[in-house]
User: Fold this.
Amino acid sequence: MSDTITIKVHRVSGFAPGEEVPVTVDPEGIPLDRFWRRRLRDSKRDKCCEVVVYHGQVQKPQDESWDEEPES
Assistant:
C-alpha cells in the first residue's frame, strides 16, 4: 500500500487554484511522480503549491529533497 500526501495548488498549469491533489509518495515522503517533485522544488521560490496533508506513515522530508529520484 502506497502512502499519499495532499498538495494544495496555487498556480500550476492544468489545475484550478485551491484544488487539492492526492500524490503518491515513497516511504520517505518524496513524490513518485517527477512532475510533483519539480513543482514542490519550484514552490520554494514561487509558492505555486504546498503540502497540506501527510497521510499514513509519511513524514515530511527533513531536507525537502523533492528533486531526488526515488530508488527502484
